[in-house]
Amino acid sequence: MTTAGAGYVRAVSIWRPVVAVLLAVLVLSGCGDSSERPVRDRVERLREDARALRERAEERVDRVRDDVQGLEEDARRIGRDLEARVRRAFEDLERAVPRADGRTAPPRGAGEEDGIDAFLTGVLGRVDRYWSRTFAAADLPEPRVGYRWLAEGETVPTGCGSPADDTSAFYCPGDDTIYVGRRIADGVFRGVLRGFPGEAAEGRAIGDFGVAYIVAHEYAHNLQAELGVLDSRRRGASARPFELQADCLAGAWGASAYRAGELQEGDVEEALSTALAVGDFEVGSQEHHGTPEERRDAWLVGFETGEPRRCSVYLEA
Question: What is the rounded CA–CA span in Å between residue 211 and residue 143?
């Protein structure tokens, strides 16, 4: 072999490993591309799926938002319609307010009565007569309500879930009945009952007209039920506007009794003091009935104006 030939062989021998390495690298590179491509494709498909899911979720959120807005608008419309209906009813009542007289026409009840029972029935009869004549003059159906005066130690079931006893004073729309315990009525009548939350505001439940205020207030809740006002109280809503309106309506009846010459000296003060006494300070509770001052002032709005329509303001707030 010539020298040149020997050099060629040596050159080939030297480069052969290099070429082999390069070929191996190229082969491996090719294998890497082919194995990574399916992974990239899968990642891309996952991204596309995620985008599609996000778009569908956004569309669903938009539909739910539209549905909620529609429901809120329906609720506002129903509230406006109910408010207008209640306002018209009270305006009709105002145009038809009669002068009260001393005669009574007791609503549904039972039995011969004496003492505090007879007094309660007499007051309820005067309140009932005033509102019955007022409703009739406004072409509204005559209000109807039952009543139950509970003896000391007596407890009876009601249509509102909780029982009534001798310390009760409430109207139950479930059975359309006013419940008043003789113990609480007699205690207020004689001015000896203590423990009312508003006593901290110098309130004291006292006197015959203090009892009359309580009866007229509970009767006003019956009026709210018959006029559909109580239907507007949503679950979890505060009782305060409905209680203050009932105080105002009780004051409107008080004004009619005053115009008829039925009140005696000190009666107005007894009603105001009792309204202060039954006020409370639980402003964060849905059962908050109004502060002592709010309850007193609500009764005064009804009494000083003698206009039932003015009492609709408490549901507009």
Answer: 21
- Is residue 115 within 8 Å of residue 137, measured between CB atoms? no
The burial class, CB within 10 Å (0-12 / 13-18 / 19+), for 2 is exposed
Q: Which two tokens stand for residue 53?
A: 């899911």
Residue 265 lies in a domain: yes
Number of domains in the chain: 1
pTM (predicted TM-score): 0.68
Find the domain containing 303 and state its range: 96-316
Summarised one tens digit per residue, pLDDT across range 130-162 is: 999 999 999 999 999 999 999 999 999 999 999
Nearest-angstrom CA–CA distance, 178 and 147? 5
Q: What are phi and psi of 104, to 5 degrees?
A: -125, 150
Q: How far apart are CA 316 and CA 62, in angstroms?
A: 32
In a domain, 136, yes or no: yes
Residue-wise pLDDT tens digits, 196-216: 999 887 889 999 999 999 999
Asked whether residue 24 is domain-assigned, the answer is no
